[in-house]
Amino acid sequence: MDDIQSELDFVIKAFGAEEIERIALPNGMIMHAEVRIGDTVVMMGPAKPGHDANRCMLYIYVKDTDATYQNCLSAGATSEMEPADQFYGDRNAGVRSPGGNSYWIATHFEDVSKEELTRRSVEMAAKYQEN
Q1: In sequence order, which residues have a C-beta less than 8 Å from that of residue 109 and are 6 or more positions away?
Q2: Contacts of 12 (CB under 8 A, 6+ apart)
Q3: CB within 8 A of 31, min separation 6: which ones?
Q4: What architecture (CATH level 2) is domain 4-130?
């Protein structure tokens, strides 16, 4: 990650994350940070010297996909996918933070049996093949 402070600011505003740890050098450079989003701890830090920064993709369950999606956009994210119900029982959406990280947010709304998931998957694959 190139700019830890900016990503921290984003997740705090977008997800209501709680910063739980920060290790910074005397010059202010953040070497390690941890935030809690819901019941999940997310760690972030800079790339090692001589290495490119890695981007990440996180899939995060939230109470309200639509509201969280709007919070993310208000915090400066760009949309990767608007909220939609999925055949596997999640309502999800995708955003990209200003720092270039991808966050997929979801609310689980339906428990789908293995048999039904298989049936729906085959149906979905057939639709893709038609196009």
Answers
A1: 85, 89, 90, 91
A2: 18, 19, 35
A3: 23, 24, 25, 45, 46
A4: Roll (3.10)
Q: What's the CA gap between 15 and 76, in Å, rounded?
A: 12
Distance CA(90)–CA(59), nearest Å, equals 11
**Residue 90 neighbours by CB distance under 10 Å:** 19
56 phi/psi in degrees, rounded to 5: -130, 165
Angle made by CA atoms 109, 111, 117, in degrees to the nearest 5 = 115
- 3-31 pLDDT tens trace: 899 999 999 999 999 999 999 999 999 99
pTM: 0.88
